[in-house]
Amino acid sequence: MTGRRLAFNYPSTPLHGRDRPLSASPQTGEKKLLNAISGLSRRLTLLAADVNKQFTVVNSRLPSIEDRLAALESKNCVEETNSKKRRRVNNPKIAEVVRRLHNSETNCRRYKPEQGQTSPHNEAVTSYLLGAISASPDLHDVDNDTIVSACKTYYETVRKNFKYKQPDLASRAEAVKSSARSRSRRKRLLEARQSVLAEDEVDLWKSASVDLMSDEEDGIVDGVSGWIVRPPSFRSQELTELCAKLQSRLEAIPKYRATHHRRLQNGPNSDRRPPVTYSSEAANGHLTVL
DNA sequence: CAACTAATCATCCTGCACTA
DNA sequence: TAGTGCAGGATGATTAGTTG
C-alpha cells in the first residue's frame, strides 16, 4: 500500500517580487502566504512519506508478530489447562487405556483400595501405568498430567467399589443402589411424559426435571404387583395437574399400558427434599410456595 | 422368539469439605 | 491453596424379565 500523497498545486515561480512586508502591498502579502502554504505543503508531503514508510515497516512485521502471538496464546491455553493439573481427564480414550492396562490379566501392579491414593504402593502403580502408557507409540504425545489424572480417577473407581463391598456399609450400598434405581425411574417417567406433550403445555413443562417426577416404589395391591406412586411434596398444583394429564394420555396408548409397569395407587408424598440447585426461574410455576 | 422395558453394573464426572 | 476423600449423579453397556 502506498501512502496518500498530499498534492498541493503551488506555483513553480514566484508571482511577484519577494520579501516585501505583508503590509506593504496586497501582492506581497499574497506571496508570503503562498510561500508559507508551499512550505507547509512540503513538510506535509515529507511527513506523509515518513508515516507511509513507518506503516510499511509495521505492516511487514505484523504477520510474524501475529504468528508469535497465536503461538503464545495456544501455548498459554495448554499450559493453563495443564497447570490446573486437572483431576479429571475428560478424555475417554485415555481413561479406557488406563482401565485396560490396570485390569489386564498380565498386570500384577494394581491399586490397593484399602490404602490412600498417595500410599507408596499406589503411587508406584500410578508411576508404572504412566510409564507404560506414555511409552506407547500412539500415545507418546499425550501429556503426563492427563495420564496421571486418568489414573487417579480410576483409582477412585476401584476404591469406591471396594468401599461399598465392606459388610458394615451393606445398608449404605443398598441405599445408594435404591436411590439410583429411583432416579432412573423418574428419568424414564420424565421422558415418557415429554413424548406426549402438547404444544400449549410446552411452557409449563419446559423446566420440569427428574426431581419433579413422582417416585415409583415397588408394591402389591390386591395381588397385583406394580408401583406405588409418591409425588414430590414440593411440586406445584399446576405441574401436578399437567403430570396427571400427560400420564392419562400415556396410559391411553395400548402399547404403553401393555409394556409398562402398572401404577397401582398413590401413596404418601415422597420424602425427598426439594432440589437445592433449582433456579428461581425454573421454580416459578413448578414448586409450591412453602 | 422378537421386541420391549426395567434393572444392574462399571465407569467417569462434578462439586464440596477438609487439610497439610 | 492444591490435593485428597467422598457423596451424588450421569451415562452407556449388558442382563433380566415380560408380553404378544
TrEMBL record:
Classification via Pfam families: DUF4616 (PF15394)
Domain of life: Eukaryota
PANTHER family: SIMILAR TO RIKEN CDNA 4931414P19
Listed name of the protein: Uncharacterized protein
Region feature (Disordered): 1-28, 257-290
